[in-house]
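From the pipeline queue, job 12 of 40. The input is one protein chain; the requested action is below.

Action: predict structure.
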Amino acid sequence: MALFDCTIEAQSGHARALSYETAHGTFRTPMFMPVGTSATVKGITVDQLHDLQSQVVLANTYHLSMRPGADLVEEAGGVHKFMNYDGPMLTDSGGFQVFSLADTLKLDADGLTFRSIYDGSYVRWTPESNMHIQEQIGADIAMQLDQCTPYPAERSFVANAVDLSANWARRCLAAHKRPDQTLFGIVQGGMELDLRMESIRRLREIEDESLAAGGRRFGGFGIGGYSVGEDHETMFETLGQVARACPEDRPRYLMGVGNPTTLVRAVREGVDMFDCVLPTRTARMGTAFSSTGRMNMRNAKYTRDFTPLDHNCTCPTCQNYTRAYLRHLVKQNEMLGAILLSVHNLHFLLDLMRRAREAVLADAYEEFYEAWMNSPAAKDY
């Protein structure tokens, strides 16, 4: 396979199994990506990521560009060498973080100005400078700079964000040159299906123009602006049509979504890739995914429960520690509690997507989906 080749290995209904070639190896979908915001998945070593069979790790352009700085990461040999991770990596553009700090943001057609959360200094980004930063960081996949809209939002605001994001996609694609890194475009449009379709049309048009001029194409397509406050059913009113309107010959990446049941449902709609801080963030709050539903380890009923966290799980936490011990760690705010629950939660999502892939390869995804939805595990939020 050539660099950034995408192969559709199987399809079951709308669910897909892909393989995708990067400079740091091939990843296979459906797939969940652990989030390593500052070039670290919180509480998890690189060796543990390998043991968990993690494929792609996501790092955050906003945070790395502020601390320690993109220049330093580049000097270290790029983010892979900096954090000693030899698998594929993806950097988001940092746009979501910028737009979540709306009270410090000044936006114009050329770019945006915002205040750093670290030292209060003003920072200016354009699509071109954002591409330069992501090329310095050096992940295998970069994301375009876009405007993520909150929920709820006025239709006119969402329409303007679609237009701005498309204009910035054109500039990002023109500016992005690093040959061992690919660029994903991002679909916006809020909960407005017609605006979502317009966003996809614009991205396809931008790509056609680029190719006609001897330029590059998008390596895949992010679906942004979901899981920003709306309930899950509202998202699924449009997600399937949006995912399937994206080019079928490249990955479709639903950004920032990590509930197990949401992943199972989204794969059924044609989504290939996911990321979220949820497994490690909820672990730090003492919460675990399980085959019996979400578990709060602060609950007194686990005080003298000397059984594994999840009887159906093969992760190191479930193989070696009891619910009583995990509850003790959580109640005492011991860092080991958050680490062990993070290992379990990451394993849970990574293994869930491995099983989803097996179901697609067997052309049995609908059966897999029905079994999950009828199980206690589906009660996860």
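Job complete. The first strand starts at residue 6 and ends at 12.
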